[in-house]
Amino acid sequence: MADLNEELRELIREGHALLKDMRAEKREIKQLLDGIPARVDARIEDQVKAGLETLGKETRAAMDASVAKVAAEFDRLEAILTGTDPASRRRGQRPLEDLIREHNERGGGHV
């Protein structure tokens, strides 16, 4: 009977040691799980920042291209109106400014 009591006490000590180890593992797992939202938030924030940076660069490039296109169109229209565009010169057309001035000099009134 004494041997049986000693064996039971040994099993109880082993059980307590296992329980202590399991509680430590539980705390460690809880700490890991508690840290996941912060890591996920940081990763999402990094991805959003990178996406916004890319979007900003692409938007800037598109805006610059659009502004350049509009400026080129105004330059083209200016050349047409002033008669300095190659097509008008080849056809011998006079600048619009000269035509308006001539019209006004002939008494044609305001255009």
Report what the structure shows:
- This protein has 111 residues and is mostly helical.
- It has one domain (2-105).
- The chain contains 3 helices and no strands.
- The protein has helices at 2-82, 86-91, 96-105.
- The termini are far apart.
- The mean pLDDT is 89.
**Binned strand content:** under 5%
CA-CA gap between termini: 126 Å
The count of DSSP E runs of length 2 or more, i.e. the number of strands, is 0
Low-confidence stretches: none
Which bin fits the share of residues in helices?
A: over 70%
* Tally of separate domains: 1
Shape field:
rod-shaped
Note the run of SSEs as H and E: HHH
Number of helices: 3
| Overall residue-averaged pLDDT value | 89
Descriptive key words:
111 residues; mainly alpha
Summarize the structure.
By secondary structure, the protein is mainly alpha-helical.
Please outline the helices and strands.
Layout: H1 2-82, H2 86-91, H3 96-105
